[in-house]
Every structure is written in structure tokens, then in C-alpha cells.
Amino acid sequence: MSGVPPPPQQAFPTPSPFSFSAASTGRSLRPSISHLNILLRFLGLLFSFACALSLAAPRKKYNKTHQISSFTDCEELLYCFSVAISAFSYSTFQLFKGVWDMAQRGFLVSGLISDYITFILDQLVSYLLVSSSSVSVLAIREIKLNATLRMASVISVSMSFATFLVTAVAALLSGYKLCKRIMW
Fold first, then answer.
1. Cα 1 to chain centroid, rounded
2. DSSP H or E segment with residue 182
3. Which of 68, 69, 71 minimizes the C-alpha distance to 52?
């Protein structure tokens, strides 16, 4: 039996089943990414709600001249309001989905499909928010006599742009998650 080589020895000892490391527990950056995602979705929800509320809150005043007295009289502000409501609805759904995924340790929708849909819709909502902000800036120039509506419009555009920034960061995060899922 001199021609048979001895069985190979393991270079590293097998870890004890009682020792746990980050690699053995399955924990990685996922909880921090999930928490960041939920924080971004909550901020998007908050800012989009403030955007819509600032336009809807001022009272409509009777105006004898044909000046803009309410956001419903101006198409640009109405567009900003509808985009803010859409962003609010989308952020609410994404926040619910993120909390559900963390609480149940499962996914409402399969991971790959969810990442694709989230990435595409984040970009779409971001585009709509920045376009409504830029269009609303032009509408603010037309509002001259109604100081309340003018201030509400400025607040709404500011909150819309803040929502855009938060949604753009969320889009980057969802793009990272999608690339990580596809490439790695």
C-alpha cells in the first residue's frame, strides 16, 4: 500500500457549530439597506404629503379680476398637485412593502421582479416630480396678487423638489439592489 497517497488534510479547521460570525449567520448589509430604504420611503411620503397639503390648504378667495385665486385655476399647479398625490401613493405602497418584507422575512412579490418594477417606477416618479417642480416655478411667476397662494406654491415646489431628491436617492438604491441581484 505504499503507492496510495494518504487522504488530503484540511488546511483550515472546521469552525465549531457554536461559533457564529457575520458570514455564518447570513447577516450582511441587507438590514442596513432595508432600513435606509424604509427611511427614504418615509421621507418621500412625508414630503409629498406636505407638497399636496400646501396647495390644498389655502382657502379660495373670491376675486373680481381674472387673477389666479386657487391652485385649481392654474393647470401647472394642478399638475404639481396630481404628481404629489401620485408620489404619495407610490411612497405609501413602497413603505408598506418594505415594512412587510422586513417583518415577514419574505417578499410580497418575487425579488427580481420587485427590483425591476421598483427601479423603473422610482425613475418615473422622479422624472414626474422634477418636471412638475420646473413647471410650477413658471406658474409662481404668474401669481401676483394672491400672496397666500404664492407662498403655498413656493412651499409646494420646495417640498416637491425635496421629494424628488429623496426619490432619486431611492432610485439609486434600487438600481444598486438590482445590479447586485443580477451581476453578483
1. 68
2. helix 147-183
3. 71
In this structure, what C-alpha cell is assigned to residue 1? Answer: 500500500
Q: Is the dihedral of CA 125, 131, 132, 134 positive or negative?
A: positive
- The C-alpha atoms of residue 121 and residue 90 are separated, in whole angstroms, by 9
* One-letter amino acid for residue 114 of the chain: S
- The 10s digit of each residue's pLDDT in 79-122 is 999 999 999 999 999 999 888 888 887 666 777 888 899 999 99
User: Which residue, among 158, 130, 154, 160, has the nearest Cα to 141 in the 3D structure?
Assistant: 154
Q: What is the CA radius of gyration of the chain?
A: 25
Q: How far apart are CA 68 and CA 145, in angstroms?
A: 8
Task: Using the Cα atoms of residue 42, residue 46, residue 49 and residue 55 in order, give the sign of their dihedral.
Answer: negative
Residue with cell 423603473: 120
Q: Choose among 87, 63, 84, 85: nearest CA to 73.
A: 63
Give, in degrees to the nearest 5, the angle at Cα 37 between 122 and 109.
70
DSSP for residue 151: H
pTM of the model: 0.74
Residue among 90, 56, 85, 70 at smallest CA distance from 160: 85
| Residue 60 grid cell | 379660495
